[in-house]
Amino acid sequence: LSSTMSCGSSSSALGVGQAVSDVYDLADPKELVAWLESANIRLIRAVYLYELRENGGRLPRRQEAEVAMLRDGQPALVTHAELKLWAELRECQRVMDQPIYAMSHCWESRRHPDPYGHQLHILLEHSV
User: Fold this and answer.
1) Residue 58: exposure state from Cβ atoms within 10 A (0-12, 13-18, ≥19)
2) Whole-angstrom distance between the N-terminal and C-terminal Cα of the chain?
3) b vs e for 26-52, b when ≥16 Cβ sit within 10 Å of the residue's Cβ?
4) Which residues of the chain have pLDDT under 50?
5) Count of C-beta atoms within a 10 Å radius of residue 59
6) Which end of the chain has fewer CB atoms at under 10 Å, N or C?
């Protein structure tokens, strides 16, 4: 598995017909952050998922997660500004590596990806 990502073809994350022609070295924190931003990918905080489970929640649609807040007032999704700061600090060895997990799952219904919270439960049951 290569850590270099070429985004020369269309991607559903980018939108129909829109393509990014750059090549990113995903092992480089700054390039990883640039790729996430160019592809409009947002990272979700693990603590948000645990808070959802504690409250009997379910995996959210992205538009729900974009406006959700944690109990401590942080947004559920990591901002691109936070990622840029992490990459800069990582380059200077002032911050530890943070695990990033990729998840892909089907929607369990046409209206919601996780209507009963089953996928959230399975995800957290098998997380590190």
Assistant:
1) buried
2) 21
3) bebbbbbbbbbeebeebbbbeebbebb
4) 1-18
5) 25
6) N
The tokens for 11 are 């991607």
In whole angstroms, what is the distance from residue 2 CA to residue 102 CA? 15
Q: Which amino acid is at 99?
A: P
Reported as a single tens digit per residue, the pLDDT across 5-33 is 433 333 334 444 445 557 899 888 899 99
Residue type, 28: D
Distance CA 33, CA 86 (A): 9
Contacts of 42 (CB under 8 A, 6+ apart): 36, 62, 65, 66, 77, 78
Q: What is the pLDDT of residue 126?
A: 82
Output the six-digit token pair for 117.
């919270």
- What is residue 102's predicted lDDT score, i.e. its pLDDT? 74
Give the chain's length: 128
